[in-house]
Design a protein that fits this description.
The protein is α/β, with parallel strands linked by helices. The chain has two domains: 54 residues, no CATH class; 182 residues, 3-Layer(aba) Sandwich (Rossmann fold), CATH 3.40.50. Helices cover 27% and strands 32% of the residues. It contains seven helices and 14 strands. The strands form four sheets. Strands 8-7-6-9-12-14-13 form a seven-stranded mixed beta sheet. The chain is elongated and about 65 Å long. It comes from uncultured Pseudomonadales bacterium HF0010_05E14. This is 16S RNA g1207 methylase rsmC. One of its GO terms (molecular function) is N-methyltransferase activity.
Length: 254
Amino acid sequence: MIQESKRLLEYDGKLFLTGKKAEGIKSLSSKANLILSGPMSFAKNGSVYLSEITKVAKSDITYPQSSYHDLQSIEEGDSNNLLSKAGIFGWDKVDEGSRFLIDTVPIYLSHFNQPPETLLDLGCGYGYLSVCASRFNFKRIIATDNNAGALIATERNLARIKIAYEVIGDDAGESIEENFDSIWSNPPFHSGFSLSTTVLNKFLKSSKNLLNPNGKCLFVVNKFIPIEKLASNYFKTIEILNKNNSFKVVLLSD
């Protein structure tokens, strides 16, 4: 967004940003100031800040040649050169939590009496979990996110797999009517820069509603997130399958 504002603003044009300190407004404004290179001022009204940054004619800041809108290849480890773009969570790397979830899948699958056939990737990002799921003999994969860029990247990434799939734009699966044998998620736990369990609760509630009677969820969260307590409002079985110094992977079922 900030780099696009540099391209679109006339010289001496102004960018205005507003938000709360806990949402990162000060650090975002500082980054914008580096890119636009002009004077910056702050005003405060209660807990909300307003920054004003001016674009100057010259800047020593260099920029990547690729556009904010372009899909870019991720060349890291087991990502198999997946495509992603700026604006998606963890867009320029393989998220370590998601990688840890995939490492735990064999343990997770051992809890099924019959192999699961359908998978919902809830909050799919650029589709890393869905692409990796193609290794585990699912017959149908649904990937959903509320980020348009994530949906574009996931569609491109899933086009390579030989499994029936669908990419759906939705808010935590609220409008999806199908039920699934398996639901995987690496849910967000921040609102702005503040810790929040609101979105995680929404993901848990949707998962409860979208899971088949004998289905099972697999969630990965940072180790300090109290998912066990939150999930107890929706699921009878809550089991930590794997954990390390940063993350825990949790199975949820009825």
